[in-house]
Amino acid sequence: MDQKIICRTIKGGVQSWTGIPKPARDKILSDVEARSCRIFELSRNGKYLACCGSKGVKIWNMSDWKIILDVPLGQIAGAKFSPSENFISLWEPYAVTTEHPQGFDNLRIYKISCGSLVKAYVQKRNVGWEPTWSPDDQLMARNLNGDVHFFEKENFARITHKIEGQKIRSVSIAPGQSPYHVLCYTPGFKGQPSFSRIFRFPNLENTNAVASRSFFQGEDIEIRWNKTGKEVLIMASTEVDKSGASYYGKNALFYLDNKGNSAVVQLDKQGPIYAHEFTPDGKGFCVVYGFMPSVCKLFDLKCNVIRDYGPGHRNSIYYNPHGNLLMLGGFGNISGKMEIWDVKRHKEIFKAEIPDVTYLCWAADGEHFITGTTAPRLRVNNGFKIWHYTGSLQYEFKVEEGDELYQVALQPIPEGIFPEKEIVTEQVPGIEYATKQDSKKAYIPPSARNRPASDLSTRTQFGIYTKSSHLPPGLAMPAQPIAAAGKKKKKASRNLEDQDIEKSVKTGPQPSLNADVKPVPEILKNDVERNKRISSLNKKLDQIVKLKEQVAAGKNLELNQLQKIQKEEEIIKELKTLSLT
Asked: Hey, is 98 helix, strand or coil?
């Protein structure tokens, strides 16, 4: 079975590529609806593709590319298939209009086989709007203003069970089979703790919870179930850390299972939790946490550390489908650093930097993975690449000039289709990069670019070029740097620095400067305050040089650091003024 790659561009619309690692474009949905598509969604087992555009929603069967459902709704902003691919939920932003002064049912559920609308209701939230389903689609739950309604056996006309008055914010049904387990999260208010409880359906009273965990500082949570549905990780987070220890807020990780066990996952380094994932075999979980360089550790189901991957600049975890390869990555603001480990041998196979990654997914064969660069996050080098786990590039697609790639995804494939293969460490043959790679050379200011190498000069303590062609008339540079007079606290040290200043001034201009350039005025020799200011400005220029080197290395800077770089010209002008005074 060949796995497909689906991508969405401005000019080309929605396109399908088949075959990994050397895909070929086999389908272009070039009609108007596909070209104007805002989002697409793939079903859990890769059977269906849904495209939502201004002319409506269309669902294709990906085996023969026949349209099986066409819904004339042009404002859909979210689509989600049920786990067994029997239903699709479509959400559009809630609004009160002249046509609907009381609002309207903005979330609709359709049965795919017959195309009928089976349920519609109001869902104002744009985060967590999706109803939650059991794996066999026989149980559906929705959150309505803090109450949870349950529907069974595809009968959406009758609410079989309710949880009322608990002000529940999130609800999730475990992926295991019947009897179903349901997790509900209730945030705390006015000094009260937050609660996460696991119920065995249909026993939904608080006293019947099979597992419960209370915690403070939990404004929001992220729920991550084990594949078996017996264990769950809950990451509670706040946007603001009241202790002031972290700019990124505060979070904590909790473990619960359907046997009644619960625990706090003890992390030995302060800082945010970037990623947490259960292993595919369900016997443990991996966590990346702590201030950079972050720490990555593997825990068993008793929350004990069983493996340490050491420190590194990472914020992502990706297990391949067989669980024998682990990818640890640093993406976003960490410049695309990537490591691939052999899980059984605990051996690093590949380590490199792959920049501009906004999408990453393992292929179903467990040997290849795809990276994508998409807009609007990044508008240059848009396209996708296919890699082998040993680090060789197998395929590269780049959109044509003037086009942008807005979405790319791998078709999900059911487990068991591709067998697990033996891991090799020697790099397999690949292809050369077609995309231009970022240069690692030192930063050169725009005014000095496109010049011969001999014409480029280094910055002096005044922040200007030593070549006479770059100096304004009347400005001369001393041969040696002027010492900062106010650096030392003791008076004797200041006097010694003043003597160094006088010596450097007496040496006169550099031989390479024009003879017409006047020397530094005599007043600079005794004006300690001026020398202090010059020293301070030189320090700022040194900091700017270091920041530019970080930019050249691909690091993303904070806003205040970028503003500091923009002040370089202003600092240079002030240095020139001080030197000519």
From this structure: coil
Q: Which residue has the higher pLDDT, 217 or 173?
A: 173
C-beta separation of 278 from 267 below 8 A: no
Hey, how many other C-beta atoms are within 10 angstroms of the C-beta on 457? 16
Amino acid at 391: G
Q: Give the residue carrying structure tokens 């970080």.
A: 550
Around 478, how many Cα atoms within 13 Å sit in the side-chain half-sphere? 22
Q: Which of 82, 125, 332 is nearest to 220 (CA)?
A: 125
d(C-alpha 330, C-alpha 275), whole Å: 11
Cβ 392 vs Cβ 427: under 8 Å: yes
The residues facing 275 across adjacent strands are 288
Q: In what order do the strands lie in the sheet with 250-257?
A: 220-225, 231-238, 250-257, 262-264
CA distance 338 to 391: 10
- Quick one: pLDDT band at residue 317, thresholds 50, 70, 90? very high
Q: In the β-sheet with 383-388, what is the strand arrangement from edge to edge? A: 359-362, 368-373, 383-388, 393-398
User: What 3 state SS string does 381-404 have?
Assistant: CCEEEEEECCCCEEEEEECCCCCC
Which residue's structure tokens are 């825990």? 299
Q: pTM, whole model, 2 decimals?
A: 0.70
> Which pair of structure tokens corresponds to residue 467?
């070549």
The SS3 assignment for 562 reads helix
- Pairing mode, strands 273-278 and 284-289: antiparallel
C-alpha span between 490 and 557 (Å, rounded)? 37
Under 8 Å CB-to-CB from 321, ≥6 apart: which residues? 280, 362, 364, 366, 415, 418
DSSP 323: S
Q: Specify which residues 144 forms β-bridges with.
A: 147
State the Cα–Cα distance between residues 296 and 308, nearest whole angstrom: 6
Q: In 10 A of CB 407, how many CB atoms?
A: 18
Task: Please state the separation of Cα 50 from the chain's center in Å.
Answer: 25
Burial class (CB in 10 A: 0-12, 13-18, 19+), 522: exposed
Euclidean distance between CA atoms 502 and 103, whole angstroms: 80
Q: Give the whole-angstrom CA distance, residue 60 versus residue 67.
A: 4
3-state class of 340 per DSSP? strand
Instruction: Name the pLDDT band for 451 (thresholds 50, 70, 90).
Output: low
Give how far the C-alpha of residue 278 lies from the chain's centroid of Cα atoms, to the nearest Å: 19
Asked if residues 147 and 164 have their Cβ atoms less than 8 Å apart, the reply is yes
Task: Give CA–CA dist 217/242, Å, rounded.
Answer: 10
